[in-house]
Amino acid sequence: MTEQRTALVTGATGGLGAAVAARLSELGHRVVVAGRDTDAAAAIAKELAERTGATTDWVGLDVTDPASVDAARDAVGAVDILVNSAGVLVDAGHDAATVPLELVEQTLAVNTLGAWRVSQAFLPGMLERRWGRIVNISSGTASFTHGIFGAAPAYSLSKVTLNALTVLLAESTKDAGVLVNAVNPGRVRTRMQPTAQRLPAEAAEGIVWAATLPDDGPSGKFLRGDREVMGW
Questions:
Q1: Residues 6 or more apart from 166 whose CB is under 8 A from it?
Q2: Secondary structure E strands in 56-177
């Protein structure tokens, strides 16, 4: 039987985050649905609890607001699994030479600094208990190996820096029982990519795998949704 852990999923009020929360709940973990829309978070938590029978909670969380993150940490308590799924794509169709820098700032604030802020909030408890899993939702657009996607430069840059953060956090938690990885879920049918073929529930499987790795699992790696290691 899988040992029950407490998992907090940011950006869990829809799309991929909601699918990850659902899968973790189905596996019997206590799941905290986190998002800015508190009504949606509460509704999803209630539905999951009724459907899976697992303990499911919710918390309001704006990853760009330090006070919101601190309040969520105080309200939730100890977290074993953190999935940084909150993200935005607001610069599609722009290029690096002309993209408005306010869009770049907005994107980095959520996709990179938001994940960093939430990780810093919950890492001390993981280190104290010597067990933790952090999964950062990245993107194939951020891979130097495959070619950085230029038609959404702020988004691509935010995921490149998120990958770098993954490596740095993994190094700082080495041999401490905490594994930190980035996952490229592929093109997933969400509000960001409504025409994508891959469904959130399918993409969630690889993320949940990374979130529940055994103690000898990889850390500081860029994983594909099919669990294979990608080139940075």
A1: 136, 138, 180, 181, 182, 220, 221, 222
A2: 56-60, 81-84, 132-137
Amino acid at 96: A
Three-class DSSP category at 64: coil
Residue 203 tokens read as: 């993409």
pLDDT digits (tens, 9 = 90+) for 168-177: 999 999 999 9
Round to whole Å and give the CA distance between 171 and 168: 5
Q: Which residue has the tokens 């105080």?
A: 74
Which of 177, 76, 185 has its CA nearest to residue 139? 185
Given a contact cutoff of 8 angstroms between Cβ atoms, the answer to whether 180 and 136 are in contact is yes
The residues near 219 (Cβ < 8 Å, ≥ 6 apart) are 170, 173, 174, 178, 179, 180, 181
- Please answer whether residues 185 and 137 qualify as being in contact, where contact means their C-beta atoms are separated by less than 8 angstroms: yes
Strand partners, 186: none
CA distance 182 to 164: 9
Tens digits of residue pLDDT in 111-162: 999 999 999 999 999 999 999 999 999 999 889 988 899 999 999 999 999 9
| Neighbouring residues of 176: CB distance < 8 A, sequence distance ≥ 6 | 127, 130
Catalytic residues: 155
Domains and CATH numbers, the chain: 6-224 (3.40.50.720)
- The separation between CA 224 and the C-alpha centre of its own chain, rounded to angstroms, equals 14
Tokens of 35: 């998002």
What is the 8-class DSSP label of residue 231? Answer: P
Query: Rounded CA gap, 206 and 222, in Å?
Result: 12
